[in-house]
Amino acid sequence: MCLATRAIILLKSNMKTVLVLNANFEPINICSTHRAIGLIYLDKASLVLNGRGVIHTINQDYPKPSVIRLQYMVHCPRPQVPLSRKEIFRRDNYTCQYCGKHSDELTIDHVIPKHLGGAHTWENVVTACARCNHLKGGRTLEMTNMQLHSKPHAPPSSAEYIFEKHIAENEEWEPFLQGW
């Protein structure tokens, strides 16, 4: 096995995510360390924050990036949080929106049931425990005399919310995510 192959295998085994900033320092994406080093090597990005050590090769040492900044402005649409089970649970903090029970075993409920014209949108879906979902059934809140703890809404599309799941292992990213 050649030394270059060993370096790539070593790099992939120590793979961490890297925050990618646009030319105006707006957070736009997350990539692998391998990809970030490639962008830096090709002069498409510059290193903003190291803090993870060094990658040793035969001829040279390269800093392991934590945050990189693209050299040129990339126009990309504002990221939106996708409507998915995982994101609905995250938005509602794994809490039943009818009784307030905090659990990992929740279901998705349509506030206005689909068969009564309710859409599958952020404003019409909530998390519910199996008991409350069964009690409500295919009826509206008025029919069952049930109340929602909080009105459903789309989560914020801020950088802090979108990249929140990576903050625990990458605390150094916080200053770059605030305000976007």
List keywords for this structure.
single chain, 180 residues, alpha+beta, DNA Binding (I), subunit A, four-stranded mixed beta sheet, two-stranded antiparallel sheet, 8 helices, 28% helix, elongated, disordered N terminus, HNH_nuc
Walk me through this protein's architecture.
The protein has 180 residues and is α+β, with helices and mostly antiparallel strands. The protein folds into two domains: 3-78 and 158-177, no CATH class; 85-144, DNA Binding (I), subunit A (Orthogonal Bundle). 28% of the residues lie in helices and 20% in strands. It is built from eight helices and eight strands, in the order H-E-E-H-E-E-E-E-H-E-E-H-H-H-H-H. It has a four-stranded mixed beta sheet with strand order 2-1-6-3, covered by helices on one side. A two-stranded antiparallel sheet has the order 4-5. The longest helix is centred in the N-terminal third of the chain and has 11 residues, at 3-13. The radius of gyration is 22 Å and the shape is elongated. 19% of the residues are buried. Residues 83-134 form the HNH nuclease domain. It comes from Anaerolinea thermophila. This is HNH nuclease domain-containing protein. It holds the Pfam family HNH_5.
